[in-house]
């Protein structure tokens, strides 16, 4: 057992901040930009850095729960999380039943740690256990964090700003690694890539240009995170929020994403550009269309000016850019794309071979998100997650429309696009979503929705006294005097 540098920082930091759980969540959000590092190495297995603050946070909050502490948004949070918890329950049961029910009947692609270079017959494996542990931890953390963040003394927008600060850190690491690859600037590989369980692709090139993966295991993973940051910062700026970290993060994250030369990132951004006008129309704010046009025009001017500067000062970059464009356009003809597509096709065939039940969580490893979910959890898991996503989306839209601009609404405006960007990228190149910082974003969105619901209930409870006060100040209309009935007066006096 060894403790890398990241663990030497996180363990004492979480110990000091144990009684300040919100600070621990901020630490977790920042630790999420180091997925290829390890906080603790046990043999050939590395513990992800986000696991340390997550365990510290849950231990404190669950101890409070055992002592009788409750949070104001417990009931609305559990109502929003119910579809997800039902899917998790089905998934955990399926990971035990399905590998035994369809044992030696279908062929699956095993997990990386169990890989033998091809498909194998389905059988219970360590992959079922390890993936169940990750899923149980992620689901538990999601619920606990969402309930905790409904505390009235917490400013949840600070956690969203921490997410943006993490985006700036990734941009800086991208530029640092680019300087290392081009000019030999010292770069601490031992700090960023200390997890022995990851195959880090840090020496890839796209023709003469280096492919940047920053602190992630591969360029596609880095592009996925930068897509989340880019989607979030663009929408926040378009909505008119004056967040200092977001305005300049748009060009910075776009530049860093371009440095990855990741097809996943380029397609995700293209999909976001197509969805942007539709989102503006769905929001019902006509001014957003004007903001979008101004943003696109300003972006075109900046890109044009940058291209002129680069072509003038470094003309050798032009052939490299042409090579990247050509390789991206011909991605479907590459051997890696063919292999990944074949894995996804094999995974989708498992749905029919298992009568829509799946092979059990952790039994099959696909190349992208949808085939991975359907092949492992079946149609029940896929439909359940779709219901959860649609429920969360409708609740977010309803909460946004019922609340004027403020901290909770800003969190919804910023987190929802980030989640959409992450899901689009994962549907292209990620078999699962197992990062705790992604689940923290979901918890932040759920907490913002629940807090808006609580604020609306408080406003409704305060409305009758306010209405009475308003009526008491209104002019009394003229009326005809009525002669009192003596018997009635005597009855009232008696």
Q: How is the main sheet built?
A: 2 strands, antiparallel
Task: Give the overall shape.
Answer: globular
Unreliable segments (pLDDT under 50, ≥5 consecutive)?
Answer: 467-494
What integer is the average pLDDT? 83
In total, the number of strands is: 6
Helices, by number, come to 18
In terms of DSSP E residues, the strand content is under 5%
Helix content: 55-70%
Pattern of helices and strands: HHEEHHEEHHHEEHHHHHHHHHHH
In what order do the strands lie side by side in the largest sheet? 1-2
What's the gyration radius in Å? Answer: 27 Å
Q: N- to C-terminal separation?
A: 88 Å
Describe the structure.
The chain is mostly helical and 494 residues long. The chain has helices at residues 5-16, 21-31, 51-66, 74-101, 126-148, 157-183, 189-192, 219-238, 244-247, 249-260, 263-283, 287-313, 317-329, 335-353, 369-401, 407-429, 436-473, 486-493; strands at 40-42, 45-47, 107-108, 120-121, 205-206, 209-210. The strands form three sheets. A two-stranded antiparallel sheet has the order 1-2. Strands 3-4 form a two-stranded antiparallel sheet. Strands 5-6 form a two-stranded antiparallel sheet. The protein is globular. 43% of the residues are buried. Mean pLDDT is 83; it is low at 467-494. Keywords: Membrane, Transmembrane, Transmembrane helix. The chain crosses the membrane at residues 27-45, 51-69, 81-102, 133-150, 162-179, 255-283, 295-318, 373-393, 414-432, 438-455.
Task: Describe the protein's topology.
Blueprint: H1 5-16, H2 21-31, E1 40-42, E2 45-47, H3 51-66, H4 74-101, E3 107-108, E4 120-121, H5 126-148, H6 157-183, H7 189-192, E5 205-206, E6 209-210, H8 219-238, H9 244-247, H10 249-260, H11 263-283, H12 287-313, H13 317-329, H14 335-353, H15 369-401, H16 407-429, H17 436-473, H18 486-493
Antiparallel strand pairs: 1-2, 3-4, 5-6
Helix pairs in contact: 2-3, 2-6, 3-5, 4-5, 4-15, 4-17, 5-17, 6-8, 6-10, 8-10, 8-11, 8-16, 11-16, 14-15, 15-16, 15-17, 16-17
């Amino acid at each position: 057992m060894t403790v890398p540098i990241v663990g030497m920082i996180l363990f004492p930091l979480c110990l000091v901040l144990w009684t300040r759980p919100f600070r621990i969540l901020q630490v977790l959000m920042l630790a999420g930009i180091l997925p290829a590092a390890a906080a603790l190495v046990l043999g050939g297995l590395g513990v992800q850095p986000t696991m340390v603050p997550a365990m510290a946070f849950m231990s404190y909050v669950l101890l409070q729960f055992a002592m009788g502490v409750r949070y104001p948004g417990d009931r609305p949070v559990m109502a929003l999380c119910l579809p997800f918890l039902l899917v998790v329950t089905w998934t955990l049961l399926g990971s035990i039943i399905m590998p035994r029910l369809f044992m030696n009947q279908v062929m699956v692609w095993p997990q990386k740690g169990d890989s033998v270079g091809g498909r194998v017959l389905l059988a219970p494996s360590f992959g079922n256990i390890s993936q169940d542990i990750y899923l149980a931890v992620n689901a538990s953390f999601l619920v606990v964090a969402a309930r905790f963040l409904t505390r009235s003394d917490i400013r949840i927008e600070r956690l969203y700003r921490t997410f943006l600060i993490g985006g700036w850190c990734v941009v800086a690491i991208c530029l640092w690694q680019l300087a290392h690859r081009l000019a030999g600037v010292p770069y601490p590989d031992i700090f960023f890539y200390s997890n022995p369980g990851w195959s880090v692709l840090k020496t890839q090139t796209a023709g003469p240009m280096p492919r940047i993966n920053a602190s992630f295991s591969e360029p596609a993973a880095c592009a996925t995170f930068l897509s989340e940051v880019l989607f979030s910062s663009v929408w926040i700026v378009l909505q008119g929020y004056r967040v200092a970290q977001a305005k300049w993060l748009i060009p910075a994250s776009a530049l860093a994403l371009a440095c990855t030369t990741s097809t996943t990132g380029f397609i995700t951004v293209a999909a976001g550009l197509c969805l942007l006008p539709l989102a503006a129309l769905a929001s019902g704010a006509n001014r957003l269309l004007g903001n979008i046009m101004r943003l696109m025009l300003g972006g075109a001017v900046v890109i044009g000016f940058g291209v002129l500067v680069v072509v003038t000062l470094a003309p050798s970059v032009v052939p490299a850019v042409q090579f990247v464009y050509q390789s991206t356009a011909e991605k479907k003809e590459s051997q890696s794309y063919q292999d990944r597509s074949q894995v996804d096709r094999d995974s989708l065939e498992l749905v029919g071979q298992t009568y829509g039940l799946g092979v059990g969580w952790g039994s099959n490893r696909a190349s992208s998100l949808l085939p991975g979910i359907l092949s492992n959890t079946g149609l029940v898991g896929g439909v359940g997650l779709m219901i959860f996503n649609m429920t969360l989306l409708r609740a977010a839209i309803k909460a946004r429309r019922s609340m004027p601009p403020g901290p909770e609404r800003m969190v919804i405006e910023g987190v929802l696009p980030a989640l959409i960007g992450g899901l689009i990228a994962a549907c292209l190149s990620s078999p699962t979503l197992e990062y705790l910082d992604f689940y923290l974003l979901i918890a932040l969105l759920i907490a913002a929705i629940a807090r808006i619901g609580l604020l609306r209930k408080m406003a409704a409870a305060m409305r009758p006294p306010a209405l009475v006060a308003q009526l008491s100040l209104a002019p009394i209309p003229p009326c005809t005097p009525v002669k009192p009935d003596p018997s009635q007066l005597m009855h009232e006096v008696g």
